[in-house]
Predict the structure.
Amino acid sequence: MLTIRQNLMETIKGGNPDRFVNQYEFMELIMEAPMDLPLAPGPGTVVKNKWGITFSWPEGQIGSFPVHDDEHKVLKDVTNWKESVKAPSVFYTEEEWAPAIEHANSVDRNDKFVTAFCAPGIFEMTHHLMGIEDALMSLYEEPESMQELIDYVVEYELAYAKEVIDHIHPDALFHHDDWGSQISTFVSPAMFEEFLLPAYKKVYGFWKENGVELIVHHSDSYAATLVPFMIEMGVDIWQGAMTTNNVPELIKKYGGKISFMGDIDSGKVDHPNWSPEEIEKYVEIACKECGKLYFIPNLSQGLNIASFPGVYEETSAAIDRISKKMF
């Protein structure tokens, strides 16, 4: 029987896996690494991070999001971003790093990838600061200022990456940046190529130049038209690939250059009235349609969790069952 790590590599390299890679099992996420990007910790809470971004988690909702009324918006005029946007320090004490180092050192790297976590992504950071409407309009109306802001975020990410690499020496990176809705990208492929592709080539290139073997990018959205750019920027696995992307077709077209993790839409199975039978149905559809290579069955959610208790664990159990049938 292959180790978890071996099975992952056989899957994404087009070899001979002996079972499906089961969701996030190959990534040992080092969530103890100090970061200055907290989200609201739970329903009914409001927090402000060190960028000055306020996050609210309203009661009855399944997550938090930045507050962008006039009182809370960090950046109101992108042409004045230098006066409004101040990145926090990336330097932390050794005491603050200690839990992350201890966790990383405890991992059997022959079995799993020690995985650094980074969120929000570059595009997300622009609209967290100013609101998504302003961010999208600014790409058209103030491209020079937006390019400067993106470059500033990239420099912060590179500085933070160096600290993470120096302290925990990760084998993999799990990086968030949602690039679309369920049915379309937020920006055109041409605009993505102009603003975001160069930024990510710098960021992902730096991680890979410093020992990271595996780049896993999260975007639980439609992003099929951006796959060639993901390949160019160095993404090994696109996590969060929803069914609206026609994942089986993407595997046929791009398998061997990139792998796809998802095809079990969280919105279809992760709800208050979920059932094992419903999860079993969608897991079986995904696995049979996508096949054994270049595909990792997974909820589209961007961490090894679900919004409702039991959904993630039942999905993993269903993947184990279908593995026994198909391998």
Observations:
- The chain has a mean pLDDT of 97.
- The first strand starts at residue 27 and ends at 29.
- The domain at 4-37+74-326 is CATH 3.20.20.210 (TIM Barrel).
- The chain has one domain: 4-37+74-326.
